[in-house]
Amino acid sequence: MNDLALQTSLRDLCFIFFKRKWSILAILLVTAVSALVWIVIIRDNIFEATAKVLVKIGHEQAMPPTVLGERPMMIVGQRYQDVNSEVEILTSNDLLGRLVDELGLDKPGPEQPVPPQLIAKIRYYAKRYVKIITEWKDEVLIKLGFRLRLTPREKAIAMLQAGLLVTPQKDSNVLVVRLFLPAREYLSAIVNKLVDLYREFRLSLFLDTSVQGFFESQVKRGGEELEAAERRLHEFESQWDIRAVENQKEVLLRQIGEARVGLTGAELALSLASAKVERLPQRLDEEKPDFAALGAFEGDSFPGKLMIKLADLQEQLELLRTAPVANSELIRANRAQAQLLLEMIASNLRADRSEKELAFRRHQTLLEDLTARLDALHAREMTWRGLKREVQVLEGSHLYYQTKLQEASATTAMEQQKVGNVEILEHGIDPFKPAGTRKITLLGMALAFGLLAALAWVAVLEFFDHAVYDSKRVESRLGVPVLAVVPVVRPLSGRIWSREQTVVAGARRRA
């Protein structure tokens, strides 16, 4: 019974709303008026201008000329780090500062004239006073140390930072640039100027004009070093008669081989001639010298002819000795002739030995000279090869820096011509209507919030209100029946209003 008595009916709820109608209406009225004032007077309309930019793979993403060595293979495609880099460039403080300086956004603009319409005039003055109050509030906060004082340029940059939104399109190289500002005029010009400055600014980031000067100095210095090294190589080759080392070594080795063969032959001939000269005194001392023991002689040679004559005289001497009557005079004449021939043979053998010895020494000197030339060529080959390597290294370095200089010159030329890999797909235009939620929607949301606030306020009042307003509440609270209800009549503005006054009497609760 008590649980059923404590239940609230629809009539009870209507009674509560009727009882608190003025509070509900007051809250709704205050909410509606506050929302209207904020929407119409205080709140500034935010306008949006949009531009779209296409970022292609170009020379900015290529390896810069300052990268030395082999360049890694590039994979063309969309990468999140590239997209994030472009977003960071578009929202950088330097770029926004350059935009403020270019357009003079930090300078106060012309004051707007007072509109002739009444509502517009009220709004104009209201916004003006709101601005004055806001500036006064900011000044107070600055003096109290709760806020920093910003220059007009810093304020303009902060406003652009708060209103700029750059988002990449999914699975594409397109960046969407959105700018939200409380002014409709010139908003498209600001967005388009921002995109143009972005194209120039990113080129200056990716490209470095100082690189060209560096490579020019390297090319000049490398050319001078290469010319000096080539001059030293030429002087060394001219001084030591070096042209083609390998060919010269082959020629010298062939000449050394021939010289060794000639030296061996000369040594053999000298040895034979020396042996004949050494055997000659022994033959001369013999009573009957055996000249055949001296060795063989060529038939056409002078010693060979003398040996033939000597053999004839020896044969004649034997005939004279075996004759019946020996002729001593003929024998002496024969011996004198033989002695003369022997002396001639001895002189010829000694002269031949001297010639053979001279020829041997000449071949030996030639071999030593060729060997010394080969050793000197080997010794100078190291220096010559070092000079050749130096020339090759300097030539390779010079050509490398020349290639880098050409790349840097081409890059600088593209920068000067503003050639980049950014294309504007869509230019910004002045917006036709404010961005964001519509005013009617905001007003409806405010009224809904006010209604919820009124209901919450009524709930709080009812929670803390313990007064009794009807007979049923008395019966439910006290658990005794109501015997009578006495109305209270109170005059108000010529009208009679009745209010029930409940009287509890009579019965006591039975045990």
What number is the mean pLDDT?
Answer: 75
Strand portion: 5-15%
How far is it from the N-terminal to the C-terminal residue, by CA?
17 Å
> Residue ranges: pLDDT <50 for 5 or more in a row?
1-6, 72-78, 492-511
**Global morphology:** rod-shaped
In sequence order, what are the helices and strands, one letter per element? HHHEHHHHEEHHHHHEHHEE
Q: What kind of oligomer do you see?
A: single chain
Number of strands: 6
> How many domains, in number, for the residues?
3
Spatial strand sequence of the major β-sheet: 2-3-1-4
Radius of gyration: 63 Å
Structural class: alpha+beta
> How helical, in percent, are the residues?
55-70%
Biggest sheet features: 4 strands, antiparallel
> What count of helical segments does DSSP give?
14
What does this protein look like?
The protein is of the alpha+beta class and 511 residues long. Helices cover 65% and strands 9% of the residues. The protein contains 14 helices and six strands. It has helices at 2-6, 10-19, 21-42, 80-90, 93-103, 118-144, 152-163, 187-206, 210-240, 245-285, 302-321, 328-416, 439-464, 471-478, and strands at residues 47-55, 164-168, 174-181, 422-426, 484-492, 495-503. The protein has a four-stranded antiparallel sheet with strand order 2-3-1-4. Helix 5 packs across helix 7 (152-163), helix 5 (93-103) crosses helix 8 and helix 10 (245-285) packs antiparallel against helix 12 (328-416).
